[in-house]
Amino acid sequence: MVPVSYYLILGGILFACGVAGFLIKRNLITIFMSIELMLNGVNLSFVAFAAQWQALSGQVFVFFVMVVAAAEAAVGLAIIIAVYRTRETLNVDQVNLLKL
Amino acid sequence: MLHLILFLAFGVVCVAGAVNLLVQRHPINSALSLVVVMGSLAAEYLLLGAEFVAAVQVIVYAGAVMVLFVFVIMLLNAGEEERTKGSRVAMIFGIPGMLVGSLLITWVLLEHSGTQSVAVGALPGPPKTLGWLLFHDYLLPFEVTSVLVLIAIIGAVVLAAPPESARRKD
Fold it and tell me: Quick one: what percent of chain A has pLDDT higher than 90?
């Protein structure tokens, strides 16, 4: 038997790591990976709460989060390719205009 | 007891992968440590009984999404990131912020969330049950997501296609 709070703590630590990566990292792709890390931390909390309250809808919701994350990854990486094509860099300090 | 040992083992691997993602400077190393995080998270899902979610985690996240990431890293030939002034400021506030944030979350959860615990496989989520839920109770959200994925596909193709000027030369 493991307390539910342990799973929630693990999810929280993953989320905190994702936020820190989002702030620290200067590479566009790594920043994007930090966002995926945050989504994973939240997914773990969803599954833990589903187990606590014996509600399967939590797991269905995780499925939806994964679908949206996959769509987001596809669009985001396409945007990164478009940015790289015009700026020739992945450093976010040099990507300071929304205009292509 | 075994449950706790397995949880801690995979949890440590998970957090180590997440920290390694922050420490590594080459994006490909970060991507591979993210694969480690996602693989051990799938094991955590299995411990909670969510079989289908664990399988989807490995197939979609550790498989498809990460392959996409590695593919883009190789396509753009991304090198090591350089340390700049902005990132040093972010580091001064980011790392203590992360530590304070995780300690706060840990403290609040340990103090105030009660002592309810879950057994191994507390809530079995086999594909049959989840499929029934997905195609009956959640049919409308499911269909809306399919439209979203279609829009994402079209958007990705439009965004990643070479610009007009480059195409006219061919």
Answer: 55
CA distance A98 to chain B (A): 14
B45 and B121 in a common domain: yes
Domain membership of residue A96 (yes or no) is no
Three-state helix/strand/coil letters over B113-166? CCCCEECCCCCCCCHHHHHHHHHHCCHHHHHHHHHHHHHHHHHHHHHHCCCHHH
Mean pLDDT for the stretch of residues B32-54: 93
For residue B93, give the H/E element and its range.
helix B85-112
Distance CA(A71)–CA(B145), nearest Å, equals 10
Q: Which of B48, B104, B83 is nearest to A58 (CA)?
A: B48
Which helix (H) or strand (E) segment is A2 a member of? Answer: strand A2-3
Its pTM stands at: 0.90
Cβ of residue A49 closer than 8 Å to a chain B Cβ:
no
